[in-house]
Amino acid sequence: MSTISTLGQHLRLQARIQATRSELNRLTEEVASGTHADYFEGLGTQSGRGLAMRSAYQQAIFYQDAAAVVASRLEGQQQAIGQVKDIAQAVRDQMLSVQSGSADQNAVRVISDGAAGYLAQMRATLNQTYAGQYLFSGPATATAPVRAPDEANADGNSLQSVIAAIKSGYDLETTEGMQGFLDEVHAVFAGTHPNPAWNFDKLVYAGSITGTMSGIIDSGLEVSTDVRANDPAFKTVLEALSVAAAVPAREASAASYRQLAGVLASRLTEGVSRTLDLAATVGHRQSVVEDTKDRHDRMASLLGAGLSELESIDDYAASTRLSELQTQLETSYAVTARLGRLSLVSYL
């Protein structure tokens, strides 16, 4: 016997359709993402464990990224130190050949030009940046640390003008005059010159004198990234290059120029040794960062796999249920349409 749809039947059917559609939407989202749409409902009693794992995973990723940034900064510094060492070795070899008398005279005449080129190259090396920050300026990461030889500081002095002023006070044709010149320039780079405005940290170095630079790579673990252009290793090489560029062979006697070459060869040998020590210091920092980053990588991988297993849905079960709901919804729509077409007139 047929019955006529009542308003109550119609409303109950609409409510069932709405519930089916909600479940269908949720399952569609879960099948697409592979995870539970409602975290706590999906994981049930495992939700607390899941949240703890998720927090540990996010922390591992945070320190993983932080360690990667520190590693990149240290790698940039390490490469720059190696470039400075190579420059020091190249010019030292030239000076040793001049000192020994084995250098070709044509080559000797252009040593100052070559030294000026190496000086510009070293300045560019020490003024490198990583992620928009200068590597050798200390905390003053927005400031290029090494001024150009002809660049005046706040006092109006430049390295070029200071060396020229010093040079004018000595007779470079004599070994005594050359030694006096070399000693006074050395005082500038050592920071002991009687005129404090001429000392390296005011005259050449534009970075920060105070403060420190470091990076956090783990909870409670910081690694120093503090290498500055006023480090003795760099100053020693800069001094030798600056003198070599400022004194061409034609301005000195053969004897005094050999004296200059001997002093600069000694300075550059010291510079090579100091750059190797500095490279070892940075290398140790790199080792600490790399070991810590590897640990974060392993932890992130382990936690990621655990979270995937814990939070992922059963794809087969979800897809099967999705098909069932689609069929059920289609049936409900059909019934709703049929009920909507019924009227009392049809049964009179």
UniProtKB/TrEMBL annotation:
This is Flagellin. Flagellin is the subunit protein which polymerizes to form the filaments of bacterial flagella. Pfam families: Flagellin_C, Flagellin_N. Keywords: Bacterial flagellum, Cell projection, Cilium, Flagellum, Secreted. Belongs to the bacterial flagellin family. Residues 277-348 form the Flagellin C-terminal domain. Residues 4-139 form the Flagellin N-terminal domain. It is found in: Secreted; Bacterial flagellum. Its main location: secreted.
